[in-house]
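Self-study notes.
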Amino acid sequence: LDPDPEPILGRDDVLAAQAEARRVVLSDRLLIAVMEIRKQLAECDITPSDRRFVEALRVVRAAAWLHGGAAEPEHLQCLSDICWAHPDQIIDVRRIVDAVVEPLASEADRLLRDVADIERQINPTLVELDRRRLALQLQEKLRRAGEARDELRVRSNPKNGRQAKKLDRLDRALKRVSGRVLREMFEIDPE
């Protein structure tokens, strides 16, 4: 590592970038999304101050500037790291921001939690009749989760990397858990 690296940007470059970011327009869709996030945070007794939201909008403008356009709801993702005051609020804040900013990714997360719950229910030590009954229930839940995943894939934007990663993760989870149900509950080799 170079102990004295060449600067990429000078002070004037940074000041010019900040000035350009301040001129980024906040879309109506973004402002509506901000109001919805604030409402849902308040319902969870998480109340970032007006000042924090004003400062957060500076970060949103900078993110939009870096992406070369007007500030749209997808630029609000940074609120996940700004709107919490205590670490125990992080999960709720991320869930709310994701649900408002990127509902499809939020739905994929919910399905991933459902699949994880199905996996926790796998119990090959049950007596055969109980094991097969549970296996049928788990297989039906996996089928419904697969259908929901297919609907999400139809609605997804293939250019949205975050959505694609979540759906790929969901595909892998469904395949892994379906294989486990077949192997451990039905005693069938899925290969």
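Second protein, same conventions, sequence then structure:
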Amino acid sequence: WSATTTGGTPLASYRVQVRDLSSKRPVWRTLDSATSRTGLTFRAGLGHTYTFMVTATNQAGVPSAPATTTTVVPSGVRPARGHYSAGWRVGRVPGAWQGRAIVSASRGASFQLRYVGGSLAIIGESSPAGGVARVTFDGRTRTIHLHATSQHIRRVIFRASVRRSRVNHVTVRVLRGTVAVEGYAITARRR
């Protein structure tokens, strides 16, 4: 975040708050109430969605309007309540989310997840060995092609939008070639 003045008066400090939208009762928690720094490190939980709010206060004590942003932290290769069939293996992938991916080149290998939450993004890679997978999300099926002339990691390889939190079902099935998944990002996941 950055700002130089509030109401024409130089800034004195920032108040930084966070709210975990994945918790049963999201409440604002103050991370720093009066800092002059313009950044901080936050230790987030895998698979959680956070809203951050920053309010600047000038030297006269007048606060600015708050600025907010939402961040979704991917789960990693083994999300809670997810199930992989036989044919998948976890391997190290330099530069990948958490340095790992779960990979399968077995035709028909699948992953299934039922969750309560919002929109879904699957993070994975495309590569020269990249294959084809079928993703079914709440009964709607889409084929994704993961072949590329060079390796691309930390890519959103599938995205499904949901307007409100609800029970959702997703299945990823390998059709051919290699499918590598690094994590699953679910907005406001409750379970």
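Instructor comment on the second fold: The chain has a mean pLDDT of 92.
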